[in-house]
Structure formats: C-alpha cells, structure tokens
Amino acid sequence: MIIAMGSDHRGFDSLKHIADHLRSKGHDVRILGPDAHETCDYPDAAYLVAAAVAAGEAEFGVLMDGTGIGSCIAANKVRGVRAALLNDELSAQMSRSHNDANVVCLPADLLGVRLMFAIIETCLNTPFSAGRHARRNEKIAAIERGENPASPA
Asked: How does pLDDT run across 45-91, given as a tens digit for each residue?
C-alpha cells in the first residue's frame, strides 16, 4: 500500500519510527514533510498528505503533531479526505469500518510508538463496512460541496 506521511517538528521522531515499521511490513511509505527537527507548521504537512490521498497518489495517510488535533482539522479541509484523530485501537477500527477514514492523525506527545503501531495496523486491516455507513459518507461529501446533507439529492 502507498502511505503518505507527514508531521510537524513534535511528531518527527515518531514519524521516523512509524515509517520504518511500515516499510518493514512491505508498504511504500512517502514522507511528505518535514525532513528535519526544525520548527515547522502542522498545516503544511497536513495539506501535502491530505492532497496526496485525495488525488489518489497515496492510498492512506498518516499525520502526527503534538496532539493530532491541528493536523486533523487541516487535513479535513481537503475535499475527499476523512481524517480521524485516534488515541486507541477501538477508535481506529470504528474510523475505518464506519467512516472509511483515509487519513489517521496521531498525538505524538500523548501516545507511545508501540500504541501508534497498533492503531495504524488496525486501520490498515479494517475494511469499510459500507451499507448504512456509505449513506453517511455521502452526506459528508454533500457538506463538502456546500449542500445540506438532509436535503434530497
């Protein structure tokens, strides 16, 4: 799987460990920002990763910053991205099976690398359930288009 990854300076060390882990599992990992410990802004990496996922250049995205909140907000501004802030494996499973999340945002200051591995593995191994959840994702897409999701199409 092609996985786009990015972080700010606070997520950089975790990003490197996660990228190495994913590569060891056979994934094609593309780090889109940053490439150093220098102070940087999370929206920059969030945009690059989200844009790659939305354009089909990557099948999945992983973002890390201190709390994961900023990256999640920024990534969700890109049309077609369903980014989820995750802190545990159950949320990871639900974000994929119910919401078809295609970008995961992790709080590098709050989680250990081992739990991050487990969260990402859960995401990558959980399929979208579709059914009633597909209808709800269509409503999210309607909001992205500026439409009222409760209005008939």
From this structure: 999 999 999 999 999 999 999 999 999 999 999 999 999 999 999 99
Which residues does the annotation mark as catalytic?
98
CATH of span 2-144 = 3.40.1400.10
What pTM, to 2 d.p., does this model score?
Answer: 0.92
Give me the half-sphere count of Cα atoms (radius 13 Å) on the Cβ side of residue 69.
3
